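for the writeup, i need someone to sanity check this before i put it in the appendix. the sequnce is what the collaborator sent (i think, or maybe the updated version? ugh). structure was predicted straight from it, no edits. if anything looks off just tell me and ill rerun, i have time this weekend
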Amino acid sequence: MDTTQNENRRGAGNSPGGKPWTRSQYTAPDPRGQPPTQPEIESALAALDPGCERQTWFTVAAALRDGLGDQAGFPLFDSWSRGGASYNLADTRDTWRSIREGGGIGIKSLFKLARDAGWRWEPERSDPRNRATTRPAHTGAYSARPAPTRPIPQSADDQRARERLIVTWRASVPLDHSDAEPVRRYLIGRGLGLILADLPGADVVRFHPNLVYWDGRQEVGRYPALVSLVQDMTGRAVTLHRTYLTPNGRKADVPSSKKLMTPIRLGAIRGAAVRLYAAEKYLGVAEGLETSLAIRLATGQPVWSTVTAGGMAALELPPEIRELFIWCDLDSNGVGQQAAEGLARRMTAGGRIVRVMTPPGEIPAGAKGPP
């Protein structure tokens, strides 16, 4: 990374531009008189651009350290900062360590910045602490795709899900980034090394260096992860799919290494897919991301991943796709085949040309799929 560019943007020294800081610069009153919760802090942070000027960036760091401390604050600050074009890990660490306790910037400074950016927090109505709050004005977008012209009503849970998606996407980097070595090793280990010369766009598949893994309500740890954008029939981003890895490019030793994040609203994921390669008139679809990339290597087709058999069965396509190749998973329980056949019937009934492609061979006894 060009460290000169980084220094030019954010300056140098322990405080931005060498200017002294006082609490009055960014402090906003809290009408509830209560300390903010971490979801509130994450929601406010999602409203801010990590590519901001250095003095704003420093204020965010100091505010997070005041509100969350080192253990919870720095991972969140680092994750958010990675969304900036001039991110530098050493500078981020040094800046965090340079913040003095009692230096005049508190957690309220973060909320002042967020409010100035149009953010409002909509908490759960059941929480009596939150009766004096207002509806959020900031919704954000983690995709460059245009949103529908008709707004979709959102609950507080939908808003929080959207903001978590924004934070995760902004903290990720393209697969050809120097930090993305674990995912490149993963693809090579899966026999997909040649796809490195034909990677999906950075607006579809990215790499997160330090993504939290939750098992229910318990935080298991943080891992490198392959992060893929899931879009509905209109091209609207609805959620993210994560493949958790180890630093040396293997699947992480967690209960489920592949997981979908909570979508922007209930039911939004139905019919959606990871649009790995742009398609105009014809398209190939497969369940898994790795299978889809293998098909791309073998055929050169534009391919989308439906993530699961259920996603395959429910897939919806834009009207311009007139010819469909369905690359079927061969499962011992027949789920993959049934999903492919159901999609084929539905798409044929809609007037499309459909071909179902099934792997050769038989499934060995006791195995879930072909060898």
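The longest helix spans residues 54-81. Residues 1-32, 123-153 have pLDDT under 50 and may be disordered.
thx in advance!!
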